[in-house]
Amino acid sequence: MRIGIVTRHDIHKGVELAGEITNFLIKEDVDVLLDPLITAELDKYSELSCELPDMDVDIIIAIGGDGTILRTQSLIDGKKIPVFGINMGTVGFLTEIGPEETFHALKEVLNGNYFIEERTRLEVWHNHDLAPALNEVVLMTRTPAKMLHIEIKVDDEIVEELRADGLIVATPSGSTAYSMSAGGPIVDPRVDAFIIVPICPFKLGSRPTVVSSKSIIQVRLLREGKKAIAVIDGQFEEEINYMEEIVFKKSDQCAYFVRLTKEFYKKVREKLMKGGIDSE
Questions:
Q1: Is 35 among the residues known to form the active site?
Q2: Residue 235: CA atoms inside 13 Å, Cβ hemisphere, count?
Q3: pLDDT digits (tens, 9 = 90+) for 193-246
Q4: Domains located in the chain, CATH noted
Q5: Which end of the chain has the smaller Cβ count within 10 Å, N or C?
Q6: H/E stretch holding 39
Q7: What number of helices (H) and strands (E) belong to the chain?
Q8: Which residue among 66, 156, 165, 252 is the active-site one?
């Protein structure tokens, strides 16, 4: 087996854990590649340095929170490399284990006691193909407290025309992220659907909508002089102008995760009890 490792380099405990995992895997005769941000902190592993997009590995271990997972997925786009997330962030819905479980879990993985979970991604188009989204795409203004006038179509049928602070188009994976905070439903990742969630709509009747993942979602700006930015998974931005459309549909390429259990609802309960606040 060949394993890549990436971590948030600004979290010292994450870098330390990356070094400990590297030692453990080398002793288990596993080939290891490290993100250059790790080797910059751990000089003795400089020969293992490899940029994330260039990693040819069986699994990537991502140490951090959901942001680290999203960054990792964006950099390995197009490769069917499963990600094994170790949570060093706050909530970490996309991660699989906590740091205290690391070495027991790695032994399970090396013994083949795991499965690969596929997660749906959103294909995003605006004059050209944009980066796909694993969690969500958020439309908003660059200026706080300014509203957008938006038309939403699903399969060429107008669903809603509204004024709101913004709009979220989310996958089931993203249903436990910004979408949930904005009042959207939690959706089991096995459900083939997308969620459209207005952010602080002016019209009280504008509610979140769940649509089939086979549908094509079209969003257009209706007010002249008002621009929006589309933020994809918090990683990429695209400016949208008056009367321009941004189009969403199911991507042909999934994201892949190493999982040890199938306990989605248990994980949701545990994460929501903490509410993203460190209890220490």
A1: no
A2: 18
A3: 999 999 999 988 899 999 999 999 999 999 888 899 999 999 999 999 999 999
A4: 2-120+254-274 (3.40.50.10330), 122-250 (2.60.200.30)
A5: C
A6: helix 36-39
A7: 6, 16
A8: 66
